[in-house]
Amino acid sequence: MTIAAKANSVWEYANPKKFLATSERVLPFFWVTSALCVGIGLIWGFFFTPDDYKQGSTVKIIYLHVPSALMAINCWLMMLATSLIWLIRRHHVSALAARAAAPVGIVMTLIALATGAIWGQPMWGTWWAWDPRLTSFLILFLFYLGYVALWQAIDDPDTAADLTSILCLVGSVFAILSRYAVNFWNQGLHQGASVMRAGAITGTDTEEKVSNVFFYPLLFCIIGFVLLFIALVLYRTGTEIRARRMRALLARERVGG
Amino acid sequence: MIPDLGKYADTVLSAYAVSILLLIGLVVFSLLRGRKVRTQMEQVEQRVTRNG
């Protein structure tokens, strides 16, 4: 099979039956590995890592805060990709995948905001500040709510997919800002990247990077959250496909009298 | 069993409690809705097939 033919075979999954069959086959793997990775990461981080010399035991919040914030942003980027596929190629499965991912993104953003506020209170002396990263994250959260509300508000599924895809394109600005706000505006309380920074890992910059004692369990949590996200989106997309088919059957039944 | 979290025990435990509750809630809600929709779809499919 040529590379072009292999690339084209991706579109086979636009067929709902093929998508459901494949996702049901791979889902047990994602459920089990995500539970294992999150479990190992959280137990290792909570029970077997030392306190930070500056932040004390609050450093343990990193194992929930960083993976959830990472997934909150990447979830929106996944929705952006599937929305673009819908707008360009009109594959229903891609629009339904974006719809299925949105509540997962809401929960991830909520966890990031809540753990950030809980962590910020003793460290910064405040639950909330209108800091560039915090503010762009709050706006991203509102975009998620607006996205879900828009799907609910429109009866025709194709019109809803069109409008939510446009909203997703607009909201992507805030998804990207949430990640890079601390680089664009060198102000505010939130620190810059200290985990996933290529320069710190290769040693080409001298800024502080999170210690390996905390990094390894964090890596488990990040991988676990990614796998959990995949499991949830595959499962929820299957649910959306079935709900769509059910609506179509009911509509046919009504027309048939 | 719980490690000594010092003066930040409430902070750390509340962050874990909120996050784990939200995660479990998301998974349980997704599974319950998935199961419900699957059952409903099967019923509708059977009815439509029966009625031609």
What does this structure look like?
The complex is a heterodimer of chains A (257) and B (52). Chain A is mainly alpha-helical and 257 residues long. Chain A has a domain at 65-190 and 225-246. Helices cover 78% and strands 0% of the residues of chain A. Chain A contains eight helices and no strands. Chain A has helices at residues 3-9, 16-48, 62-89, 92-124, 132-153, 157-184, 198-202, 212-256. In chain A, α3 (62-89) runs antiparallel to α4 (92-124), α3 (62-89) packs parallel to α8 (212-256) and α5 runs antiparallel to α6 (157-184). The radius of gyration of chain A is 21 Å and the shape is globular. Chain B has 52 residues and is mostly helical. Chain B has one domain (9-50). Chain B is built from one helix and no strands. The longest helix of chain B is centred in the middle third of the chain and has 42 residues, at 9-50. Chain B starts with 8 loop residues before the first helix and ends with a helix. Chain A binds chain B through residues 42, 46-47, 51, 56-58, 60-61, 64-65, 68, 103-104, 107, 110-111, 114-115, 118-119, 121-122, 228, 232, 235-236, 238-239, 242-243, 245-246, 249-250, 252-253, 256, and chain B through 3-9, 11-12, 14-16, 18-19, 22-23, 25-27, 30-31, 33-34, 37-38, 40-41, 44-45, 47-48, 51.
Strand composition percent of chain A? under 5%
Shape by Cα distribution of chain A: globular
Distance between the termini of chain A: 49 Å
Query: How many structural domains in the coordinates of chain B?
Result: 1
Order of helices and strands of chain B: H
Overall pLDDT metric of chain B: 93
As a percent range, the share of strand residues of chain B is under 5%
Rg from Cα of chain A: 21 Å
Distance between the termini of chain B: 63 Å
Q: What characteristics describe this protein?
A:
heterodimer, A: 257 residues, mainly alpha, B: 52 residues, 1 helix, 0% strand
What does the secondary structure layout of this molecule look like, with pairings?
The complex is a heterodimer of chains A (257) and B (52).
Chain A: H1 3-9, H2 16-48, H3 62-89, H4 92-124, H5 132-153, H6 157-184, H7 198-202, H8 212-256
Helix pairs in contact in A: 2-8, 3-4, 3-6, 3-8, 4-5, 4-8, 5-6
Chain B: H1 9-50
